[in-house]
Specification:
alpha+beta, 51% helix, globular, 60s Ribosomal Protein L30, Chain: A, 5 helices
Length: 101
């Protein structure tokens, strides 16, 4: 999980992430997000707003670490969802997850 967090940290510094449930949802609706990482402890509301939309769009959905760890890696308070805009970064994230969980 630490490699995933490191990769997401690089993506954040490069400006290739959208952070937070509402921002990810808007990115999915606008076709700007190619992969979504959802915190393992994300609430049902976050799953309904982001997970359902990602699954409906066919956008890969990855279960990440708890929101506290995800936020810390991005220099933020707890984060429930992160959208990845860059295809190469998304490929790297997907390669680190077992069968694109």
């Amino acid at each position: 999980m630490s490699k995933l967090l490191g990769l997401l940290g690089l993506g954040a510094r490069a400006g290739q992430l959208v952070i937070g449930v509402d921002a990810v949802r808007a990115g999915l609706q606008g076709g700007k997000v190619v992969c979504v990482v959802v915190a393992s402890d994300a609430g049902a509301r976050a799953d309904e707003k982001v997970g359902r939309l990602a699954r409906g769009n066919g956008t890969p959905l990855v279960q990440g670490p708890p929101a506290e760890e995800l936020g810390r890696a991005l220099g933020r308070p707890p984060v429930q969802a992160v959208g990845i805009r860059d295809r190469a970064l998304a490929s790297g994230v997907l390669a680190m997850t077992p069968a694109g969980s």
